[in-house]
Specification:
The protein is of the alpha+beta class. The chain contains 28 helices and 22 strands. The protein has a five-stranded mixed sheet, with helices on both faces. Strands 13, 14, 15 and 16 form a four-stranded antiparallel sheet that branches. It starts with 15 loop residues before the first helix and ends in an 18-residue tail after the last helix.
Amino acid sequence: MDSPTQRNRLEEEESPYLRQHADNPVNWQPWDEQALDAAKERDVPIFLSIGYSACHWCHVMEEESFEDEAVADVLNENFVPIKVDREERPDVDSIYMTVCQLVTGQGGWPLSAWLTPEGKPFFIGTYFPPEGKRGQPGFLDLCERISDSWGSDEDRPEMETRAEQWTDAAKDRLEETPDAAEVDAPGSAGPPSSDVLETAADAILRSADRQYGGFGSGGPKFPQPSRLRVLARAYDRTGREECLEVFEEALDAMAAGGLYDHVGGGFHRYCVDRDWTVPHFEKMLYDNAEIPRAFLSGYQLTGQDRYATVVSETLAFVDRELTHDEGGFFSTLDAQSESPETGEREEGAFYVWTPDEVREVLENETDASLFGARYDISESGNFEGRNQPNRVARVSELAAQFDLEESEILKRLDSARQQLFEAREERPRPDRDEKVLAGWNGLMISTYAEAALVLGEDEYAETAVDALEFVRDRLWDDDEQRLSRRYKDGDVKVDGYLEDYAFLARGALDCYQATGEVDHLAFALELARVIEAEFWDPDQGTLYFTPESGESLVTRPQELGDQSTPSATGVAVETLLALDAFAADDFEEIAATVLETHANTIEASAIEHATLCLAADRLAAGALEVTVASDDLPDEWRDRFASQYLPDRLFALRPPTEDGLESWLDQLELEDAPAIWAGREARDDEPTLYVCRDRTCSPPTHDVEEALEWLGENGGSVGSSETIDESGSPF
């Protein structure tokens, strides 16, 4: 029987990224037992290439090297070449990216790693050019030198020793937890207090770019939604105005600059410059989930309509371009698409404009000039001679410049954007990665559910529930009580990771809060119990990223820090704390132990562990429990609570009668009502509201204003929900 490495096996995979490489002359293998066993049998190194479908430099390296027959001959003869989609296998990516960062001081994709047949890395980097330049070796030359060294009796022992050292370093970084002596050291007894939130906020403020908004003194600029959550929470806790100022500056910069798609809505991945002008054009589902959550908080804190508008436009983009016909959300849109001029795939081709293109679409010269002045459409261009729209002029400035009323300016701009959107729809579209990932869907489900509450739009709740049911139907095995990570065209693959369970559990809990349907709460609790069974290690006092019953890799990673998505451990801890109110399980003890185990790490580098800082604050402050005994959540109550920034607010709808509650308890497999529901039935046959903070509760009331007044008197902040019109915006 032929060895699996004698042919390219990626055509058998459903991942769009892997299938992009199915026609390469390189005999690519997926990461599986066949490929790993082949490396051991042939006693050759593994060449591991990790990327994702929307990765620009992944495409470049493919065109330059992986489509080259000479490169393919070397890889096929002397290595087992393996391709990994980092979105499908974040565990594999986490291990080798950690090694890359430890060894080189930086990381990125494509990630290129050379491994022993046992999977231990001995050489690593990111993109390699075809020919050596600027101190970088050429890829083909590098492969030949590595192959020669592997076959050398003198060099191979050194390579294997290095592989052991690097693997041990990765284990120290990813797998190990502090020993008992370190946990019990002075200053580390118990979980971090709420002070760690202010520590994180202080560090975030020091990193703020007060001139251009966001964080860092140069480019590239990333959105950093977890940092924004810390600033919002810290402002709520302390009233420190600088937190709100930096928070708003970041929101406004992202909404005005090239990160935001001003024609079609939604956010690109990041900007390559300090002033947010030119984005890296791919659109990721997780960015378009987490960034709008920050804008919802901005709307709650300030009442400014412009923040709600960004959320609405972004969700309209997700509905239109990233949503499966049957519910559920796709993963990414590529940065590249075919240029109408050259016929070649170019980054940003779908999104950028010249003044002539704008004039051709709008026809009216005044409208074209108005749009150009508003969105920085110039002859010189801001991106390779063309223009990525950036909102640079205020409506009041345009009114004076064009001698028009502000209302007329807004009307013309809205019409121009619509016409340009319709014209853009005729362009060749970026490729879409149609993987449905459980964890990323959980992030988006939470955003839709929260938007339903904050903006009062019931269709957002319907979208959230449709997506939750899509993922549950296709990726959840009810008999085995296990979640898979990826669905694509009927194909299900990969055991779920901590982020899949944690993000989806939070999404299910948020669907319960938005709809009051107990089935969503029951699903959240099922997922939480698997987190305890598969990811919780009581001996180490931590949550691991991979399931205990899953594939054994060279190390078992944890995910404590925030990356492009929030920390899986942080979201798990926050969600376990919230679900503890509804369960007989001791979820709070697990959450508190995880925070205690990592207290020194969190306190020493709070800015890198923003989500865990938020979780520590939630543990210390306790949830704001809003129990509603009613068949439905009254619209007025929802609007009054959800319009305020109350970051630990937990809606807990329950049936109005004890008889009705019994059926819920049966579905949740609970013998007794949890405290959040116990004794809190409807009074006088009317919807009844109970508000509790830190085990102190308001009297039952039918009047939402009474509950809010009690909250204000008992440590809760009740902010303004007034709004201003667009002319009050700095943009």
